[in-house]
Amino acid sequence: MATLKIPTPLRSYTNGQAEISVRGANVGEAMNDLVGQYPTLKPHLYNGDGNLRPFVNLFVGEDNIKDLQGVETPLAENSRVVLIPSIAGG
Amino acid sequence: MQPFIPGLTREEILRYSRHLLIPEVGLEGQRKLKGSSALIIGTGGLGSPVALYLAAAGIGRIGLVDYDVVDPSNLQRQVIHGTSTVGKLKVESAKAKLLDLNPDIEVDIYNEPYTSENALRIARDYDILLDGTDNFPTRYLTNDVAVFLGKPNVYASIYRFDGQASVFYAKEGPCYRCLFPEPPPPGLVPSCAEGGVLGVLPGTIGTIQATEALKVLLGIGQPLIGKLLLYNALDMSFDFVKLKKNPNCRVCGPNADIKELIDYEEFCGVPSHDHDEGSAGADWDISAPQLSERLKSNHLKLLDVREPHELEISAIPNAVNIPLGQLAARLSELDSAEDMVVFCKAGTRSARALELLVSAGFKKVKNLKGGINSWAKEVDTNLPIY
Question: pTM to 2 decimals?
Answer without folding.
Answer: 0.90
